[in-house]
Structure formats: structure tokens, C-alpha cells
Batch of 2 targets.
Target 1
Amino acid sequence: MSLISALLRGVEAKLAEVGGKRVRSIRLAVGLLSGAEPDLLESAFAVLSEGTACEGAQLMIRRPPVRVRCGACGAEVELLELSLRCPKCNGFDLELEGGDELFIEEMEVEFGEPQHPGVREDPEGQ
Ligand SMILES: [Zn+2]
């Protein structure tokens, strides 16, 4: 899966940048509308990370909620599962905000010697 290849390249670039040795864990934000399936991401990661600095790293996937504004009743709600109807008035006049997130939220890096803190990466492209 090319998405994971790109992800691994990004992680390795970051790892080189901070002088880390290997990656312990990666947390991904995967929006409901991103088109990426967490299960598929996990299995692709397991295969593609073999032999890289990410081998054996824990992949955590977070699904941020989608914000929805209803044009009919004005409700503003956050949905954890995608729905085409307003949960308040059952209308279809919904405006979606976000949901297409797909980025590394955080990665934990192992350095040559212990006692180094992990590296945090701030979410971008919100
Ligand atoms: Zn509504």
C-alpha cells in the first residue's frame, strides 16, 4: 500500500532528523472520510515495516470525530461514525467539517542510549 510506504518514509526522515535509532510507536490520525481503513493500514504496516527502523513498532490509530453542521435545524454535532442524516432532526442537509485527516500525531523514538524522552509531532494541516 503506497500510503504506508509514504508514511514509513516520512517516519524515517523524522527519525534521522532527531537522531533516533528506531521507532517504538506511531500514532496516526485517520479520519472517517480519509478513505483509509485502519485494518488495512495495520496489516500493510506490519508487512512494509519489516527491515526498517519501524519494524516491531506499535501502530496506534485514532479516528477523530467528524464535525457536522445541519442546515435544517442548525445543530452542530460530532459524529464518531459517518452518517448522512442529522441526529437531531433526521434531515439530510449536512455540512461536514474535517474527517479527511491522515497524519502522524505522535511517534515515540528510541535512541542509542536510554533516558531520552519521546518525540512529539504536532498535528498539522487541520
Ligand atoms: Zn438537523
Target 2
Amino acid sequence: MSVQRQQNLLNGNQGNAQRRLKFLYGIELEPFAIKLDVKDAGGEVVRKDFHILLMWEVLHEVQKIQKQFELSMLGPCGVDGPLHFWDNVATSRTHFVNEDPEWAPYRASTVPVDIHVDGIETYSNVPFLSYSWSSSLVSNICSFDLQFPILIVDEDELIWGVTDVQIVEAINFMVLVLGSGVVPEFDHLGRKLTRKLPSGAHIAAGYFGAFHAWTGDLKEKVQEHKFERNYLANFCCEWCIAHKVFAMYNAFNFDEHADWTHTETTMMQYYMTHVGAERSPWAMVRGWSIWFNLLDLLHLLYLGIVKDFVGTVLFVIASFMGPKVFLNDNLKELWTECCAWCKYHKYQHSIKVFSTNGLRWQDDNDYPEMDKRLKGANCKLVFLWLSDKLKNMADANEQLRCPLT
Ligand SMILES: [Zn+2]
């Protein structure tokens, strides 16, 4: 693929992001150019302009409309959301928003920010890395509505240890601005900012933002954080010294008191053993720690074991609905019900009709499971609908047994 074509594709992606924001929220944002060192098709290092969407300008636009601010930033608990959230964080980990006395007056108005890094493959098989952000207070079901793009880069251009660090520097700067609540005079490269939202302007009417967590697939996690202990290595966990081969610290021992459970890595240990370039560039972001890399639930659950679970439950319910010859009719009926549930809850989806083929079931020698191609977001919706349905079925059953209560 030619360099020009790749650049067109990138610009197209960035353009899509802007159009999407305009379509969804009526937000018109002008892109902001940052300088990144990347390698060109010949492997030479070149400094290029990359368009990003400034996080504080997105927040500024979103908070102008109260309903939109609640939906996109505060989540279901509304104005109580941030305080509940930080209180909850304090029960398990230390975080500067809870520890720093200077932050104390602002905890209730600090929106926790998650940064997402996703590998995406376009129709032409070019791997891209997408950086985006969202409020930790909103569900990640409808990522289309709630996740805001920052930047997309072509992975073939990216120089690990250079480009990724520059990207984190830019994100770190934007997060710091969210924390200050005021548009700065200069950008992180020392260039004077001349934007529609001027320097000195308040960003979000008394609201602030602070980094809460990093999320991404296992692959991106290893790349971004340079974890030598990772899912492909024998030492398979960055949080402890679980090992795939050594009997001691056996990673496959799931006993409550397995040896590895006593080997939790502290941040002090991490810093002492990861110096300079060995350290994750995210260490520059205030609030980041290896403990604030969230589990990759999409891959662990919704592209993993939940597919088996959901497939089996669907199959069992459909089997109870009538003789096996009607299995496909029953599955279709369940699908209609699932779609109605999604519509009621205003969840967008592309769940294909349930069928024995879709469950990869031919006869009783097969184990029903959801199609491998089912997207994680769709699988999550089927799972949530089924939990709702099973609960209702259990309640109805209870009432049948106790008609007088
Ligand atoms: Zn571990």
C-alpha cells in the first residue's frame, strides 16, 4: 500500500471521527496538529503532523448540554457519580485524587477518565492503533456513543519507544489540562495555543478530569507498557510472579491461598526494577500504576467464556420451549425477544438471528456456543438480556410455587 494511500486512509479515519462527533452531539471541533516522529515506507525517521481531537475541547462541548454531559460523563448516578466512584476506588487502591489534600475539595467534581488503546484492522488489512477516552462512570456497552477519539496511527509507521512516548506525552498534557480546569496558554511542545476556546477559559463549568485507568487488549497492553511479564511469557502476569512452568508459584493453581497470591508487585518494586526506557511511558501520567491497567474484560469474558455460557443457556431454554424439530423456530423467537430488549434499553447492536448453525450445534455430540465471529459488544448484550430473562423466569417460578405471597 502506498504511503499516500495510507495517509488518505488516516485522514479519512480522523475525518470520520469528527463527522461522528458532529452527527451525534452537534459538536464541531477543529483538529489540532501534534508532531510525531514516525518511520516512512523506506524506514527513515520523519517528523509529521498528526491530527488529534483535544480532550478538553470535547469535554467543553459535551458539558454545554446538561443531558449530554450526564449521559457521556456522569453516568447513571448523575451528579453523585464522581464522589461514589472515588470513594469506591479508595476501598481497594490508593489514588492521588483520594490522597492529595489539595484535591479533596474537587473529588465530587472530578470525572474519572479512562484511556483506551485498541488495535484496529481496516478493510485493507492495515493495522492501526486507536487512542480514545471515556468517562469511567459510563457503561462501555455503547462505545459508539460514549468513547471519544483522540488519535489514530498506522502501526507500521510507529516507532516503539519514540512515537508511543510522544503520544503519551500529548495525552498526559491533555489530562493535566482537564485537571486544571482551564485552557492553557501553550501546548506541551511550548507552542502558543490559538483556538476558538481561548487560553484562560474555563473548560467545564466547575468540573475537572483525572486519569483513572488504562484499558486495552492483552496485545496492546504488552506493547504499550513493555511488560516483560505477560500472557505470552512463562512469568505470565505483571501483577505477581505466577509462573507457567515452576511448580512453586504455579499460575494454574486457582486455590484461594495459591503461592502466587502472596507475591503481589508493589509500585515501589515496579519502579525499582523498571528504570528509564524499561518503564512504561504511562508512568508519566499522574494516577497511573500497573494496578490501574484494567482487565481486558472484552477478551477475557465477552469474546471468551461468556460465548460458551450464553450458547448453552440459549440452547437449554430453546430446548425447553418444545421438541427438538422446532429448535430453530424457538431460537428465532428468543432472538426477537433479545432484539426487543435491546431496543427498549436503547442499545445499538448487530446481533444476527439465533440458530442451531449459529450455535455450531448439529447433534448432541456438539457443545452449543456462540459464533466465534460474534462481536464482543453484541455478546455482552445477549449476556445482559439473558441475565434479565433468567431472573424473570426465576421470579415467575417462585410466584408459581408461592401463589399467596
Ligand atoms: Zn498475577
